[in-house]
Automatic annotation (TrEMBL):
Gene Ontology CC, one term: monoatomic ion channel complex
Example of a GO MF term: inward rectifier potassium channel activity
Domain Potassium channel inwardly rectifying transmembrane: 46-182
Keyword vocabulary terms for this entry: Ion channel, Ion transport, Membrane, Potassium, Potassium transport, Transmembrane, Transmembrane helix, Transport, Voltage-gated channel
Protein name, as recorded: Inward rectifier potassium channel 16
Main location: membrane
Catalytic activity reported: K(+)(in) = K(+)(out)
Organism listed in the record: Channa striata
Site (Role in the control of polyamine-mediated channel gating and in the blocking by intracellular magnesium): D169
Location(s) in or outside the cell: Membrane
Family: Belongs to the inward rectifier-type potassium channel (TC 1.A.2.1) family.
C-alpha cells in the first residue's frame, strides 16, 4: 500500500486492501530506506569498508609477483602471520648457523675428543652449537662460549652470522614499523556515512553523503571523488565493467568538521533520469573515495566506501550535528548517520526539471501538488509542511 505524497510526522491514516482504516503513529516510527527483501544478496563491487572482493587466479605455482615484491607482501599480511614469520625467521637462522657450528666441531674432532683445543669453547654437541648460535646472533654474550684462534672457518662463520643478523633485524623492524604506520589503520578513523540521501538544494535535486574525521587531529587537505560502477553479465559468465565519473560540487576539502559531499543531479549526471520508483531496480554502485594528507605524519591516505541503490534514501537529509559553543564548535558524532524526512518530489531529476521549465509559473508548480475532489469540484491542495515531514513510503 502507498501513503499520500506528503503527510504529517505524527499520525497517518491508511486504507488496507480490505477497506479498513488503520492509523499509524509515526512520531516514534523511523523508516530509513525503501529496501525490498530479497533472498539472494547481490555481489558488491566494493565492500563498505573499502575492500574489493576480487580474487586473482594465477597459474599453479606462480608466486613471482609476491616474491619480486616480498617487502610489500609481508607488510600486507595479517599480524598473526607476521608474528609467525618473525619467530620462524630467527629460529630457523639459529638452527641453520648452529648446524654449521656443530659440523665444524665434528670435523675438527671437538665432539669425540674433549682434550683437543676446540674451535668454539664449550661446544661439544649440537645443543651447545645451537646455544652459541643464538647468543652470537642476539648479542647476548654470556662469556661461556666463544670462538678461538684454532679454526679460521669458525671465525668466518661468526662474521657472516653477524652481518646476516644486522640485515635480518633491519628487515623485521622495517616491516613491523610499516605495518604499525599503515595507511589502512588511519583510514579507519576517517569514515563515510552508511547511506546517501537525495533532497533539494537551492531548487536542484542532489545526491549527497557525509564525510567525517573521528580523531582530534585534523587533515591538511584532501580530495573527494565519486565514480559510478556498472557491470553487465555476458554469456559464459564473463562480466564487463563500465565506469563513469560523478562531478562533485566542492571536491577539495579541509576536514576540520564533518562535511556533506554533494553531487547535483543535472543533465550531465548519469543518475539524471533515475527516480525513486526505479531506484531499487537499478544496477549500479556508487564508489566514493577521499584521498588526504595527515598533518601529524604527512603521509598520504585514502578512505573508500560504496553505496548501492538500497543504501540511497530518497527524500531525506542528514541531521545537523555541528553546534556553536562558547569557545569552540561542538560536533555530535552520534548523529553522523542519522537522517530525517524532507519534502521532495517523488520523481526523477529529469522529470522534475521538465515540470519546472521552461517557465516556473503556477501551472507548472501545480503539477507537483496533489488534488482533491469535493462535491464534484476539483481543488488544488496547498500543504503547510512543518520541519517534521515525511515523504511517500512504499511498505
Amino acid at each position: 500500500m502507498v501513503l499520500p505524497h506528503f503527510y504529517s510526522a505524527r499520525k497517518v491514516k491508511m486504507s488496507t486492501d480490505g477497506g479498513e482504516q488503520v492509523v499509524i503513529d509515526t512520531y516514534y516510527t523511523t523508516v530509513h530506506s525503501l529496501g525490498r527483501q530479497n533472498g539472494s544478496r547481490q555481489l558488491r563491487y566494493m565492500e563498505k569498508d573499502g575492500r574489493f572482493p576480487v580474487v586473482f587466479q594465477t597459474p599453479p605455482g606462480e608466486w613471482s609477483p609476491y616474491l619480486m615484491d616480498i617487502f610489500t607482501s609481508l607488510v600486507e599480511i595479517r599480524w598473526r602471520v607476521m608474528l609467525l614469520v618473525f619467530s620462524l625467521s630467527y629460529i630457523m637462522s639459529w638452527l641453520f648457523f648452529g648446524l654449521w657450528y656443530w659440523l665444524i666441531a665434528y670435523v675438527h674432532g671437538d665432539v669425540d675428543d674433549v682434550d683437543t683445543e676446540p674451535c668454539v669453547d664449550n661446544v661439544r654437541g649440537f645443543t651447545g652449537a645451537f646455544m652459541f648460535s643464538m647468543e652470537t646472533q642476539s648479542t647476548i654474550g654470556y662469556g661461556f662460549r666463544g670462538t678461538t684462534e684454532n679454526c679460521m672457518v669458525a671465525i668466518i662463520l661468526v662474521t657472516v652470522q653477524d652481518i646476516f643478523s644486522c640485515l635480518l633485524d633491519t628487515i623485521i623492524v622495517g616491516i613491523v614499523l610499516s605495518k604499525m604506520a599503515s595507511a589502512r589503520k588511519r583510514a579507519q578513523t576517517v569514515g563515510f556515512s552508511k547511506c546517501a540521501v537525495v533532497n533539494l538544494r537551492n531548487g536542484v535535486l542532489c545526491l549527497s553523503w557525509r564525510l567525517g574525521d573521528f580523531r582530534g587531529n585534523h587533515i591538511l587537505e584532501g580530495t573527494a571523488k565519486a565514480q559510478l560502477v556498472q557491470y553487465v553479465k555476458k554469456p559464459l559468465g564473463s562480466v564487463v565493467m563500465s565506469y563513469q565519473d560523478l562531478e562533485i560540487q566542492i571536491p577539495d576539502i579541509v576536514l576540520a568538521t564533518p562535511v556533506t559531499i554533494i553531487h547535483k543531479l543535472e543533465p550531465s549526471s548519469p543518475l539524471y533520469s533515475l527516480g525513486p520508483d526505479n531506484l531499487l531496480g537499478a544496477n549500479f554502485e556508487l564508489v566514493a573515495s577521499f584521498t588526504y594528507t595527515e598533518d601529524s605524519t604527512g603521509m598520504l591516505h585514502q578512505t573508500r566506501t560504496s553505496y548501492t541503490p538500497a543504501d540511497i534514501r530518497w527524500a531525506q537529509r542528514f541531521q545537523d550535528m555541528l553546534k556553536l559553543g562558547k569557545k569552540d564548535y561542538k560536533v555530535d558524532y552520534a548523529l553522523f548517520n542519522e537522517t530525517t524526512w524532507v519534502p521532495v518530489p517523488l520523481v526523477s531529476a529529469e522529470e522534475y526539471d521538465r515540470r519546472r521549465h521552461p517557465v516556473e509559473d503556477s501551472q507548472s508548480h501545480s503539477q507537483l501538488l496533489p488534488t482533491a475532489k469535493r462535491k464534484g469540484h476539483t481543488y488544488q491542495v496547498t500543504i503547510d509542511i512543518s520541519e517534521e515531514v515525511m515523504q511517500q513510503t512504499y511498505l
